[in-house]
């Protein structure tokens, strides 16, 4: 048995075991207890008990880890979680946790959004997108502008070339965003399909 005394009615944890194997206390406080266990079959595992934390709901697909897709041993479980205590939840009443599907990893990344996202209009500064480098038109726009305005100073060239790229880039970025949205929609439909054809389509879309 291992445990920590509460302070009044707050905190305090205890762990009891019987024939569990060799249990080693790693760390402990009024709000947690962490042990390492070597079971009777010599397998080692870790047990951590937490007091006063809420396991937050996930929006989207409920499983966060998978293995063996397209095999007879395909499994999905909710392995990753977001925990918070009551005081933190009172500070962020509109908090949300999203499962971001489509990761190349066997784990899905979780997105924590503490507060509601309010939209506002602001003036956007020019920002060069690395994805534009994959488009031949990007190089051509810069080349043409530089050659057509040889008498302008460098700062003037940079400013106006940026404007040209921004106008062109809005269309390209819009295409990327639509493709990403379409891919996410396809992944959502294919996620729980177990036929070989659907699994292959899922993996191809995921890439």
Features:
three-stranded antiparallel sheet; 3 domains; 207 residues; 11 strands; two-stranded antiparallel sheet; alpha+beta; elongated; single chain
Inertia-based shape: elongated
Oligomer: single chain
Mean pLDDT: 77
Distance between the termini: 49 Å
Give the tally of structural domains. Answer: 3
Give the H and E element order.
EEEEEEEEEHEEHHH
Please give the share of residues in helix.
Answer: 25-40%
Radius of gyration: 27 Å
Give the spatial strand order of the biggest sheet.
Answer: 3-4-5
Strand content: 15-25%
Q: Find the count of extended strands (DSSP E, 2+ residues).
A: 11
Residue windows where pLDDT falls under 50 for at least 5 positions: none
Task: Determine the structural class based on helices, strands and strand pairing.
Answer: alpha+beta
Number of helices: 4
Q: Summarize the main sheet.
A: 3 strands, antiparallel
